């Protein structure tokens, strides 16, 4: 499946079908993230049920702590 993630082309295994699966694939599980799919922010509570498909565009922001 061909996606765009943060402006870059990205090829993803077709067995991953939801935003939740994408988060796991990108090793962002447990991190504070904000995801925009096709210019629409997706609520965290919808990640498990929001499908992804070839051609989708994602902007993913994750927060990094520091001091």
Describe the structure concisely:
The chain is mainly β. The chain has one helix at residues 19-25, and strands spanning 2-5, 8-11, 33-37, 40-42, 57-62.
Secondary structure category: mainly beta
**Sheet with the most strands, sense and barrel status:** 5 strands, mixed
Helical amount: 10-25%
Q: What are the segments in which pLDDT stays under 50 over at least 5 consecutive residues?
A: none
Strand content: 25-35%
Task: State the total count of DSSP E strands.
Answer: 5
- CA distance, first residue to last residue: 39 Å
Quickly count the helices. 1
Order of the strands making up the biggest sheet: 2-1-5-3-4
Mean pLDDT: 94
Q: Overall 3D geometry?
A: globular
Output the radius of gyration. 12 Å
The H-and-E topology, N to C, reads as EEHEEE
Task: Tell me what you see in this structure.
The structure is a single chain. The chain has 67 residues and is mostly beta strands. Helix content is 10%, strand content 33%. It has 1 helix and 5 strands, in the order ββαβββ. It has one helix at 19-25, and strands at 2-5, 8-11, 33-37, 40-42, 57-62. A 5-stranded mixed sheet has the order 2-1-5-3-4, with no helix packed on it. Strand 3 (33-37) and strand 4 (40-42) form a beta hairpin. The chain is globular. The N and C termini lie far apart (39 Å). The mean pLDDT is 94.
């Amino acid at each position: 499946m061909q996606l765009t993630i943060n402006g870059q082309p990205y090829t993803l295994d077709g067995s991953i079908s939801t935003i939740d699966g994408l988060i796991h694939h990108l090793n962002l599980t447990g991190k504070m993230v904000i995801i925009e799919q096709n210019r629409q922010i997706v609520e965290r509570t919808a990640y498990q049920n929001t499908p992804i498909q070839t051609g989708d565009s994602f902007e993913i922001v994750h927060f990094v702590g520091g001091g």
